[in-house]
# Entry
Amino acid sequence: VRPLIRGRGQRKGHCDHSSAMDVLQPYLQRVSDAWNSDARKWVVSFRSPLDCWNENPTYLGLELVFYVWTLLIFKHAWRHGGRYLILWCAALLHGFVTENIAYHIPDIDNFWHSQTMIMFIGRRLPLYIFLFYPCFHYITNIAATRLKLPLWALPFAVGLADVLLDVPYDVTGVNLVWWTWHDTDPNIFDRMYNVPWTSYMFHMTFASSFCILLNLSRRLLTGSNDMDKMSDSYFTEFVCMVVTGCLSMATAVIFQFIPVYHFFHDFYGVHTEVCVLLLVAIYVMLAWSGDRINNPDARPQQQASGKKRRSRFEFDELTLALLIMYGYYIFVAMVAAPETYRSTGLHQEVGDCDHVTYQQTVIGPLPKKTYLCAANHSEPYFSFDCVNGTLPPDGAKWYTICGVPVPNLMEYRVIVIGFSLFVLGLFYIYLHRSAAPSTAAKTMKQKRA
# Structure
């Protein structure tokens, strides 16, 4: 900031702007220095899209697709207003809380995202991951609401929809080095196609807990959990949003992760796959039981008399978002060459191969290797071949890893494409073969006006 030169002959009572700037100059300089310092880079850092493209074009494409997805889903929420917008904001808050906790508690700090164009929190949190939560939670909650399930069954339909949305994303992401996992963490040791089974449990339990808290708090505090019945108290709606966003993670861990996963896995050595399939069976039974309750409004061909019969397909923002995202997964599965991709950024710290850390669990401490043993790691989806086999030195957290060929390319394609098509079919039923989308929120806004 260039200081102003005080002029002569200043009239009495005239504001001394130069004096004000003299006072502000040191402050503005400190702000400028801080913005260009490591402190600013810890908060937010940027990367050239050309660098992202050169390292992994599929990851840059995913980031851009997520931004489009976010705009479409936010447009849907804005168009409906009321509780739809609150749902979107609650999911955003839930994501902020969950990601911050995951990065700052050592016992659950077990994954590292590759670098994107916009990163937060010490280059650990990509912007698209921050937006991941309102994208997934919003679309699954809106879709499941159209089934007109009773409150006790709704969260389980949401959880099932959320984990199905996740399967193509998780299988594609780890095998194309969009992120990496801790090499020896016992909570993510059991895997399928390099995806920890607990990742699927995470999606199911966190999504269902989010739904439970949002709907139950609305029912208790406002008398109704109907998406189209905004209460008169904005403060009460705000409280419901904060409670849901801040407590969903704790609710999922206490009431689902501990009894279904930690009890069987940690005490009795039950494989995580069994725990996840047990949880899936419970969710399917409860969601299906709720769907067996006859509700004419949930079936377009049986809607109550006097109502206009719904057409089979109504194209909206949610449908377009799903087609774009899962069309992208199908495209990537057909053209991706992971052996040509690299990821330069934060990964598990390299160090002494024999150093052990004890991780706290419900049965007490469990051992895990503290550092990645670069010369003898057990992560089959990356190597150091693209850097001529040069291993990162001990203490390195920022280094380059290289993608490797998928062992069975056709099997990978079958999984990703098959699940993507299944997701599109499932959400066609949720969104277009169930209750019609309501315009009540818009009508209520018009009435208040």
Remarks:
- The first strand starts at residue 44 and ends at 46.
- The two ends are 47 Å apart (CA to CA).
- Confidence is low (pLDDT under 50) at residues 1-18, 440-449.
